[in-house]
Specification:
The chain has 201 residues and is mostly helical. Helix content is 50%, strand content 7%. The chain contains 9 helices and 4 strands; from the N terminus they run αββαααααβααβα.
């Protein structure tokens, strides 16, 4: 057992509420580990920014998203922005669910969650500012409109995503609600020909 003299040298010089504190410093190996983590963090940070051998989590996310898109689109190939393609997709519940998810992820800040518009125009009425034909929706998505107020998405979306989003936006027309109409009244969307419907079935 340590002597009182030895114990007294281990007691720190302050006392609070009758409680005394021993001076027990952390061991040297603990300090070495702590310092080594600080040194390693500098190298790790530098590699994460500049090393070509380092795969950033953002790159892994993009790669995973691209792989998932390729998997999803394996059955439909490359979609084209044609009237018949848009009309056929509008009747496909599976792909309209996908189009709705693209809309929620990219468009709600300007067009609201239901397409009724807030900053951007109402997509549910018959008055459109930059669209006269159903295929124009895709062109607006791809190239933007209103001098950049509607940004171009051609470099940020897969081509199929833009076609599917166009079809989903087309389905919003005719619903009630939303902000006041802007633009000019345009003709109704065309209907699919009976021949095309028979081929699809």
């Amino acid at each position: 057992m340590a002597s009182k003299e030895t114990d007294s040298t281990l007691i720190r010089g302050h006392e609070y509420d009758g409680i005394q504190e021993f001076d027990n410093p952390t061991p040297t190996w603990w300090h070495l580990i702590w310092l080594s983590t600080m040194v390693l963090s500098v190298f790790y940070f530098a590699m994460s920014l500049w090393s070509p051998m380092f795969t950033h989590q953002t790159d892994r996310l993009v790669a995973a998203q691209e792989a998932e898109i390729q998997r999803l689109f394996a059955d439909i190939g490359e979609l084209e922005n044609t009237e018949e393609t848009i009309l056929s997709l509008m009747d496909d519940e599976k792909w309209m669910t996908f189009g709705a998810s693209v809309f929620r992820g990219n468009c709600v800040s300007c067009h609201d969650s239901d397409g009724g518009g807030n900053v951007g125009p109402n997509l549910k009425d018959d008055a459109w500012k930059n669209v006269t034909r159903i295929t124009d929706i895709h062109d607006v998505i791809a190239n933007g409109a209103a001098a950049g107020a509607m940004p171009p998405w051609a470099n940020r979306m897969h081509p199929n995503e833009m076609v599917l989003l166009s079809a989903y936006v087309a389905t919003l027309r005719g619903q009630s609600g939303g902000k006041a109409a802007e633009g000019e009244i345009i003709p109704p969307w065309p209907t699919r020909s009976s021949e095309a419907q028979t081929d699809a079935e």
